[in-house]
Each structure stands twice: as structure tokens, then as C-alpha cells.
Amino acid sequence: MSLWSAKDAVAATQGRSTADWQATGVSIDTRTLKPGDLFVALNAARDGHEFVAQALAKGAAAALVSRIPEGLPAEAPLLIVEDVQKGLEDLGRAARARSEARVVAVTGSVGKTSTKEMLRDVLGHQGRTHAAEASYNNHWGVPLTLARMPVDTEFAVIEIGMNHPGEIAPLASMARPHVAVITTVAAAHLEAFENIDGIAKEKASIFEGLEPGGVAVINADIATTPILRAKAAQHAARILSFGTARGAHHRLLNVELHDHVTVGHARAWRSPLVYKVGVPGRHFAMNALAVLAVAQVLGCDRAVAMADLASWAPPAGRGTREELVLDLASDGMSIDLIDDAFNANPTSMAAALEVLAAAHPRDGVGRVSRGRRIAILGDMLELGPDEAAMHAGLADLPYMARINEIHCVGPRMRALWDILPEARRGRWVASAEELAAQAHRLIDAGDVVLVKGSKGSRVSLVVEALRRVGRVTEEGQV
């Protein structure tokens, strides 16, 4: 099925096409390009024009360019525009304008990708749903997601992120959501803002893009809720809140953390709810409550939505849990790995440590007589001048007393390692590569191991090393 014709793309971008073509997708990377894609030659880490010939050789329908690359044949199918980034944005706006989909936009300091993925699963069983396959939430990710949206989409979920002030509002205006969700506001990218209030104001600018009659869904539990509510009141026809606070429309009353699921007890205004999420984590129960609020706004079947949440699992690196078998010849010779290595800030770190503290190691199966809860923690980046205190402050979390051993990776995480009690202090290393090389010495059968850190800390290397030590069970995620 055609996504873009040359005629429609020219009308959207006001560009010039050198040939007639039909594209079935949109790509910005020749490594993942599929035959029939329109290749967009963005100027990112490298100039995309260098890869146009390769894209066409791999079967691209055409290439969106701002100049004709050298060496191309005269008949090469090109869509020529003044600026490729703007051309992609034009395609995104045109795709949004021609769609009758109900659009949900999601932002937040923590949980936006997981919430987007929950919404993809929940809405996907209630209508044709479109969402980015990865965390495409920036200046090129949002227009790319929109440009890829099929014409017959019924629900679209658009994730919107930021690193600096002024980034969210233009992306929200491009997405034009009917529902805008803020999962939470926390100390993330704080070095670019004066304080948490500044982050809240930037997150709240998502409401500037709401369609007439649009609904704002906000977290009721945070200190900056009044900032979110005030901004929402300027742009939303209705405001729904979720959280544990009195007065929250979707109020979380109690959370039960089990090894492989979370059970939430809540009230949706006057209706009692008991729901499961297919992964442990209080934060996942909160995100799921926001999803149920969105489902209500969109008129979805809530019973079906709750059933879908019960089988949901997070994307890789965001709290996925799996069993790694260390010895196939002996029963029970395995560890449980919690892979949360994609991102970190104090709020998400606390949530992950709570999950680890609630986990149940197995005794009597390894070299060590008792199974252990082990945390491997990498640096939390972009926290600003108070970063050392924020890292050291993790030691004060109530869950830390239940964690047997804590290994620290990176110069910032040294602040935590220095104040850990000797009995729970593991190793400190300057780089993830050093700890990855020692991975086989860190674990024993029966252990539950959490790996958590900002993407830039590269603790995902430790995850990869642990997977090489063990084998993932046939069931995959546990």
C-alpha cells in the first residue's frame, strides 16, 4: 500500500521531483531501509547525501535531498527541497493533516517510552494504531513518526521529549494531539534548566498543541502539578489527573509488587479497578493508570485494555526481566536479570531499586548459600551542579537496606560508592567496559541482578556480558 506518491510529497514539501514514484515507507538510515522506502538524507552524525546512492541501490523508491549528490544517474528518483529537515517536517504535518486518527501525545521526565508502548498495545486491540518502533521523540523523530503514519490509522501515539527549553511546543503543534499526557516531572536534563519548575513548564508546553476540545492527562502526585494544571487550563477542554493524591480522577490506592507482575488497586472516579501489569514496578502501575485514563477519554473498552496491560512487557533496556541459565545440566542454576540500562535519573533509579528490593532471590542453588539482590548502577547524566549529591542521595532510599551488593560504574556514581556500608559495597570502576570484563565474577545462581544507568554510562555493556555468561530461557522474558 502506497504511503507517499511523488505528487503528494511534492504538494506537502513544495519541492521538485525528478521522477514519478510511490513510496511504501520512510527511512533515515540505510542500515534499516526497506525496498520501497523514501530515503530522507538528514544531516546528522554524517551527511545523509553521502548515502543516497546506497539507499537507491537497496531499493529506495526515491530520496529526499537538498542537492543532487555526485555520481547519481540522471534518472535517479529524487525529491529536491531547500532543507531536508524542513522537508521531513512538512511530510509529517501533511500526514497529520490528512489523517482522521485520534492522536495521543506523551511526554514526561520518566516513563514516556513505556507509557507510549503500553498505549500502542492497548489501543492496538481497539483499532488500527500507529506509533514509533523506538524512542523517536526529538526534532527528527516526531516528524518521522508522523510521516510514516498510514492514512487509515485510527489511533496514533506520539512520544515527545526534550533536552533544552523550547523543544516540546513546536513538536506538539506538529502532532496536534487530541489527548496529551505528562507522566511525571523529575530531575532529568536539569543542567539545561534553572530548576524543576523550569522542567515542568517545558513539559506543560505540550498542551499548546492540543486540538480544540482536547484533554490533558496529568500526574497529580508531584510538587509541580499546579504548574501543569495551570498550563492545561489554558489549552485543554478537560483535565484528568492520575496518581495517589486525593481528588485524582484515576486514583491509585494500593500497589502489590510480585516477582513477575504488579497488581494495582485504584478508583476511576467512582468505579473500583483491580488491574495487573505484566512486569514488576510501582512506576509501571502508575503509567498503566494514565493509560486507562486515556482509554476512557478515547471511548475504548476498559475491560479489554486491562486485559492487555496484564500481558504487557517493557521494551528492551527499560525494565525487562529475563532468566539467564548458567548451567543447563543442573536445575535452578540461573539468575534473574532486570535490564534497565537505557536511561536513568534519581526518580527512575528509585523506582528500579524498589523493584529489585521486592524481588525474591533463590537460596541454596549456587556457590553462595543465599541468593542475593545485586545492583549494578551507572552514572546518571545531565543532572547539573548537584549531581554528586543526587548520586549520594540514593543511599538514603529505604529500599537500599534490602539490596545485598551494589556495584558502581562511572565517576559520578563514585559519590554513592564512597558512602555505602562496607557490607553492601561492591566494586567501583571508572568505565562499564571494566565491569563487563568481570561480569562472570559478579553473579551466582539464585541472584536477582539489576543493571541501571543513563545510556551514556554504557552499562548496557554489562547486560550484554551477563547474557554471554548465561543463556536466555526459551520463554525469553520472565
Automatic annotation (TrEMBL):
- Keyword ATP-binding among UniProt keywords: yes
Q: A GO BP term, please?
A: peptidoglycan biosynthetic process
> Per the record's keyword annotation, is Amino-acid biosynthesis included, yes or no?
no
Q: Which residues bind ATP?
A: 108-114
Domain spans labelled Mur ligase N-terminal catalytic: 24-91
* InterPro entries the UniProt entry points to: Mur-like_cat_sf (IPR036565), Mur_ligase_C (IPR004101), Mur_ligase_C_dom_sf (IPR036615), Mur_ligase_cen (IPR013221), Mur_ligase_N (IPR000713), MurCDEF_CellWall_CoF430Synth (IPR051046), MurE/MurF_N (IPR035911), UDP-N-AcMur_synth (IPR005863)
**GO molecular function term, any single one:** UDP-N-acetylmuramoyl-tripeptide-D-alanyl-D-alanine ligase activity
What's its top-level EC category?
A: ligase
GO cellular component: a single term? cytoplasm
Subcellular location, record wording: Cytoplasm
Q: Out of the domains of life, which is the source?
A: Bacteria
The entry sums up its family as follows:
Belongs to the MurCDEF family. MurF subfamily.
Q: What is this protein called?
A: UDP-N-acetylmuramoyl-tripeptide--D-alanyl-D-alanine ligase
Species for this entry = Roseovarius mucosus
The protein's gene is named murF
